[in-house]
């Protein structure tokens, strides 16, 4: 019995018994039982690695020399520090490139070890292309007729320059995958790295001068410099490396030719679904529902404001240095790369305008109008309104939290307008907060005892927000505080083990009623996220939540910020008018302005050979780019269609500049994780007692099997509370909100053992009937694939960590 398999190309593999036969040609298949082999180069065993023959070239007597692209890349290496340079190269050449190869490239360019590739002028075009790069010969090939045309025409000279830059990009890509790599890496995608490189490189100084000398040439009729004149707007340089040409390179060829929270089950979706009948009945408007969700949204994003992720001010830096605690010094390591508290507030206001007013992922040429509408309808965003990370606002277990409350310069806010209630960073873990009390819940969730003023409970925070909502009334401030209260109320079902205990309770009731004992036994074994309590009576299992530490912030919040702030790929093109600024422009300018200020105080010592530039220089570049956009936009209005071709290219230039956004954002994101990374898995938190991690217990992720049930319970509670507060606003029956607040904490944020919690039984039973096959999965003491879906970044979080770890 034999088996025949066709292998890529013209190599055929025939297997049968212990024999493997490979032949290039000369294999004929007459039937399943008869195969004739006549190829003289037939071989037995494993085939030799096929290497395509090198390009056969007939050299011209023309000479062409260009160091322009190489000099630009060397300049970039000297402008950027090693770390941002590596991020930049990852954006251009892909995440599969080895980190060590990126480092070798940076250092080789900086110290002169990497040289300019040879340019060979050919008699004929190869594969019909004017310019090529040979991966195996490591040479740039240019057709001589291309040079003749460039001598006579400025536009062709611009095209030649673009071609040389692009082919140099192919050369660098080849080096990264071969000579500089520890293990050679095949180019597996069809993205033309040369075209991407050309775009990226053109961002640096191609438009600084009206004329640019990029090469010298010698032909029978010409000897001299090739100069491109950029004073004429019709020079369509960008057209030669447009985005479509990024996908025309076959990585298997020898040569490369010149040639982008309102979901169901999330907080916004829960409130939209819960309040839809009130919109239908005109008790609430669409805007008012969004104003409620805005208060909820703020609590999600305020989690970013903590000591390890925000740039510290000098007084707080001095406090950390004076503390003498060594591991705190790691907070300072990446401080110049981090965003200040004020800047993040500005960025989040822009993001809020995009999400709540513009409401689209498409391109808009003028973000300012949307920000003005946001400020009018939502009241604008300040440090006090945003707040900072506080565990009680999310029912987080404060175990292992350090006391950074003395960092009062960088982190403090007044969270209730006009009432002077000041909050700072959490005062750190106190053993009393972790005790299970008579309510069968942890003290940090709720307590009958006198509350700790430094460590308020989650119930106390929600209680206060409900009262503030009632007192402010039916306006944007009242809605914002109601949304903050809803955040805690919704998190109770997602972040505690209330749902798991309710399922175990349902199993107990089934057994008491002698119904479906098999299902009941499965329910009784649902893992309750309290160590040693699996299979125990539900009434003995305490309500707990998880420790929300840096890994959880990284997984659940920061990628969402990055996705919204820095969209990936080429954005929809819209012709601009002079002075128009996009959301992306606003993000970039705000970020670079802030980083520029922060790096002015950067006292880190650096090797002069491998020293980089400051964010202020990036800021200048982007400001110059915007000036160019304005000048070009003005010209487009008068010139018409020919200029729009250039306009499209420059639009992509702006997309390329977001590389620096991604560098800065990912450094911010990565540095926080690198500073105090705490692994949140079942392996590192095996003996946790009553203190699981957020990653283990939370049901935030849409792919978590209990997310739909937790969401349904949250909708019931939100709808009920909304109906009641609307009635209070209408009748003034509870002017302080005290009664409503007591009603909420006595009915919803309690243990399922209490009769008041029986409201949840119906929804739990319906879920059980519809999901009985899922229940056995819930018996495992491992996370149910909780980790939030991390949006794919232009530079992935995994690659960020790989690069950062390279420097450890």
Quick structural overview:
The protein has 808 residues and is α+β, with helices and mostly antiparallel strands. Helix content is 46%, strand content 8%.
Structure overview:
There is one protein chain. The chain has 808 residues and is α+β, with helices and mostly antiparallel strands. Among the domains are: 3-44, no CATH class; 63-257, no CATH class; 263-293 and 455-495 and 709-771, no CATH class. Helices cover 46% and strands 8% of the residues. The protein has a 4-stranded antiparallel sheet, with no helix packed on it. Strand 1 (3-6) and strand 2 form a beta hairpin. Helix 16 runs antiparallel to helix 25 (707-731), helix 17 (498-512) packs across helix 27 and helix 23 (641-675) packs across helix 28. It is elongated and about 100 Å long. The two termini are 56 Å apart. The N terminus is likely disordered.
**Low-pLDDT regions:** 1-24, 28-33, 39-50, 203-208, 233-260, 568-573, 602-613, 638-684, 784-795
**How many beta strands in the DSSP annotation?**
15
Provide the helix percentage.
40-55%
Strand content: 5-15%
Q: What's the number of helices?
A: 28
Label the overall shape: elongated
Distance between the termini: 56 Å
Mean pLDDT: 75
Computed structural class: alpha+beta
* Major sheet size, sense and barrel closure: 4 strands, antiparallel
**Strand arrangement in the largest pleated sheet:** 1-2-3-6
Cα gyration radius (Å): 32 Å
Summary tags:
about 800 residues; alpha+beta; four-stranded antiparallel sheet; four-stranded mixed sheet; 15 strands; about 10% strand; disordered N terminus
């Amino acid at each position: 019995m034999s088996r025949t398999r066709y292998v890529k190309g013209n190599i055929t593999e025939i297997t049968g018994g212990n024999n493997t036969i490979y032949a290039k040609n000369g294999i004929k298949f007459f039937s399943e039982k008869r195969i004739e082999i006549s190829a003289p180069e037939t071989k037995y065993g494993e085939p030799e690695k096929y290497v395509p023959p090198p390009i056969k070239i007939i050299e011209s007597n023309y000479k062409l020399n260009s160091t322009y692209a190489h000099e630009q890349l060397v300049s970039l290496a000297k402008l950027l520090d090693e770390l941002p340079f590596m991020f930049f190269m990852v954006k251009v050449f892909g995440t599969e490139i080895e980190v060590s190869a990126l480092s070798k490239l940076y250092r080789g360019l900086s110290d002169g070890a990497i040289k300019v590739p040879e340019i060979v002028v050919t008699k004929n075009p190869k594969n019909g292309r004017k310019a090529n790069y040979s991966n195996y010969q490591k040479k740039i090939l240019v057709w001589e007729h291309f040079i003749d045309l460039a001598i006579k025409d400025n536009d062709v000279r611009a095209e030649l320059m673009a071609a040389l830059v692009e082919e140099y990009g192919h050369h660098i890509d080849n080096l990264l995958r071969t000579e500089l790599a520890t293990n050679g890496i095949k180019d597996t995608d069809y993205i033309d790295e040369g075209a991407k490189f050309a775009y990226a490189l053109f961002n640096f100084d191609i438009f600084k001068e009206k004329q640019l000398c990029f090469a010298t040439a010698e032909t029978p009729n010409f000897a001299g410099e090739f100069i491109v004149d950029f004073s004429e707007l019709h020079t369509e340089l960008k057209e030669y490396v447009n985005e479509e040409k990024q996908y025309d390179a076959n990585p298997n060829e020898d040569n490369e030719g010149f040639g982008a929270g309102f979901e169901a089950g999330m907080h916004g979706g829960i409130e939209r679904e819960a309040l839809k009948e009130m919109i239908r009945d005109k008790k609430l408007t669409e805007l008012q529902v969004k104003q409620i969700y805005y208060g909820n949204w703020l609590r999600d994003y305020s989690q970013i404001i903590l000591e390890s992720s925000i740039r510290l001010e000098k007084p707080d830096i001095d406090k950390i240095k004076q503390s003498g605690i060594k591991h705190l010094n790691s907070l300072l390591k990446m401080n110049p790369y981090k965003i200040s508290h004020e800047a993040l507030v500005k960025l989040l206001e822009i993001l809020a305008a995009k999400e709540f007013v513009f409401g689209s992922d498409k391109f808009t040429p003028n973000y300012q109008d949307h920000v003005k509408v946001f400020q009018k309808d939502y009241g604008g965003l300040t440090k006090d309104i945003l707040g900072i990370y506080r565990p009680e606002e999310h029912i987080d277990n404060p175990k292992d939290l350090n006391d950074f409350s003395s960092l009062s310069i960088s982190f403090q806010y007044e969270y209730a307008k006009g009432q002077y209630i000041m909050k700072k960073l959490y005062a750190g873990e106190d053993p009393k907060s972790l005790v299970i009390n008579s309510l069968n819940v942890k003290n940090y969730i709720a307590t009958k005892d006198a509350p700790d003023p430094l460590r308020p409970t989650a119930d106390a925070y929600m209680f206060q927000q409900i009262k503030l909502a009632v007192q402010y009334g039916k306006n944007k401030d009242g809605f914002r505080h109601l949304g903050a209260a809803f955040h805690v109320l919704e998190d109770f079902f997602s972040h505690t083990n209330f749902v798991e205990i309710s399922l175990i309770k349902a199993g107990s009731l089934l057994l008491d009623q002698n119904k479906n004992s098999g299902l009941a036994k499965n329910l009784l074994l649902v893992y309750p996220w309290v160590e040693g309590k699996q299979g125990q009576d539900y009434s003995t299992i305490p309500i707990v939540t998880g420790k929300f530490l840096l890994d959880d912030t990284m997984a659940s919040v920061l990628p969402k910020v990055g996705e919204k702030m820095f969209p990936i790929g080429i954005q929809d093109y819209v012709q601009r008018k002079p002075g128009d600024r996009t959301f992306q422009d606003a993000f970039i300018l705000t970020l670079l302005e802030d980083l520029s200020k922060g790096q002015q105080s950067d006292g880190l010592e650096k090797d002069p050979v491998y020293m980089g530039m400051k964010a202020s220089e990036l800021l200048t570049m982007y400001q110059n780019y915007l000036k160019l956009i304005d000048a070009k936009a003005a010209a487009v209005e008068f010139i018409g269609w020919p200029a729009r071709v250039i306009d499209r290219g420059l639009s992509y230039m702006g997309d390329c500049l977001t590389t620096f956004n991604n560098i800065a954002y990912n450094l911010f994101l990565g540095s926080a994780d690198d500073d105090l990374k705490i692994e949140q898995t079942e392996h590192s938190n095996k003996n946790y007692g009553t203190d699981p991690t957020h990653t283990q217990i939370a049901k935030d992720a849409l792919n978590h099997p209990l997310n739909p049930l937790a969401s349904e319970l949250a909708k019931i509670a939100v709808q009920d509370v909304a109906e009641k507060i609307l009635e209070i606003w209408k009748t003034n029956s509870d002017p302080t909100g005290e009664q409503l607040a007591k009603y909420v904490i006595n009915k919803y944020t309690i243990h399922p053992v209490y009769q008041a919690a029986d409201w949840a039984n119906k929804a739990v039973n319906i879920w059980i009937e519809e999901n009985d096959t899922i229940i056995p999965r819930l018996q495992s003491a491992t996370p149910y694939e909780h980790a939030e879906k991390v949006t794919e970044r232009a530079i992935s979080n995994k690659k960020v960590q790989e690069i950062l770890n390279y420097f450890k």
